[in-house]
Design goal:
mainly alpha
Length: 68
């Protein structure tokens, strides 16, 4: 912990990590709206690619937050 009315690097890292965690539900809603807005021809293989990308991005964010 830093002194009162100051922030050190650890404090900033903690705040940034929490911001990512708090942003996750909003990002999921945004991705859901993007998927709904896709044209009808986006189905089958393209939907699989879109789902793969969402899973990859979610895993990347999770690992970034965990620091591993």
């Amino acid at each position: 912990m830093s002194k009162r009315f100051t922030l050190n690097k650890a404090d900033l890292e903690r705040v940034a990590r929490n911001a990512l965690i708090f942003a996750a539900p909003a990002l999921l809603l945004l991705l859901a709206d993007i998927v709904k807005a896709l044209p009808d021809w986006v189905s089958g293989p393209w939907l699989v690619v879109a789902l793969w990308f969402v899973n990859w991005a979610t895993d990347l964010i999770r690992k970034f937050i965990a620091g591993k």
